[in-house]
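Chain X:
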Amino acid sequence: MNFRVRYTDTAKQDLREIAVYIAGQSKEKETAKRFVNELREKTKILETFPESGAVPNDRILKSQGYRFLVHKDYLIFYHYSEQEKTSYILSVFHAKRDYVRVMRKLI
């Protein structure tokens, strides 16, 4: 299976905000870039294994086919379309946030 990985505008904005936050905290732009690249690298597994992410416990998110990957302290939420052979990255955020609340705003 060769799937494409596409980022929604929300996910792109999430990555920008993560980079700004890390750069501000570390005072190192390179550290921020490196971490965002790690997050992007993590999603490459979806090109071959789109079902590799965990299924959320929330019944609504589960019923709509959402899944997530974990990278360090961050969650990468996505869904995939078998017909389109595409995994869509929906949102990326810190795991301490209430993922149900964050994701329900997007659906």
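Chain Y:
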Amino acid sequence: MTDTSEFDRKYNGLLYSVMRWDQLTAFWEKVDAGAGWYLYAVGHELPQTSSPADKVQQFMRELDELLRRDHHEDYCAIVYADDLDAPNFIKIYDPNHLGSSCGSSSMKTSVLPGWLMSKSPPRELEMHGLVTGQRKRWWQSFLSSSA
């Protein structure tokens, strides 16, 4: 069994938000695509290995397009990282599944990110809803395409 303690520390640790779209553009340029990223679409099968640099670059490019198309705000604020200048862990929330950001103490579940980029092997995150057909198709298309 994979030791996921590093993943859990990052997942539950302090993360910084990429607030503006221009910051997101600059942020993607700081991500070292060849650093051994595990790409995980929450609700789908866990990646067993890290992705090659060209696949990471393709993921960032295609996900950037999806976020800009589907997040109908003039700000980003749905991408979070442990370090905005040299990230090792990135949470990306699905603009079509944001839920309530304030919540209440009676809420037993939090909104899960749509995608994770991690340099340590991820553990499965339990979905409390369904992954939409649109997102399933997007992920399957990404996995089957070449960079």
